[in-house]
Amino acid sequence: MFSTTQVARKFGIAPKTLSRYIAAGKVPAPKVVQVGGLRAHAWTEAEIENLSKLLPKIANGRKTRYQKLRATQKAQTKSPVPRKKKKQ
Which of 22, 32, 52, 62 is 20–30 Å from 4 (CA)? Predict the structure, then answer.
C-alpha cells in the first residue's frame, strides 16, 4: 500500500495535483483508510498500474488550452514588416 504523496512522487507530479485529479473524477479514487485522526488514500500496485495508463491521457489545462487556441488561429503571412527610415 502506498500513500498519495508516494504515488505522486513516483510519477513526478505534485501530490496536490493528484488529489485534484481524484476530486475532479479524472482518476478513480483508491481505498480510503483512517490513519490516526486523518483519512488517507491507500494505493495498491494495480491502481498505480492503472494510473500510469491514465495520466498521459489527462489534458494539462494550461498547456493544452493555448495549443487549441493556436490551432484555431490562422497563421500569419511571412511578409516583411515595413520599417521607418532613419534620419541621418
Answer: 62
Q: What is the mean pLDDT of each run of 10 residues along the chain (88 residues)?
A: 91 90 90 90 93 81 66 70 78
**Cα–Cα separations (whole angstroms), residue 68 to 12, 35, 54, 75:** 25, 43, 21, 13
d(CA 54, CA 36): 31
Q: What angle do CA 71, 77, 83 make, to 5 degrees?
A: 135
How many Å apart are CA 31 and CA 47, to the nearest integer?
10
What pLDDT is recorded for position 80? 73
pLDDT for residue 69: 72
Grid coordinates representing 40 are 488517507
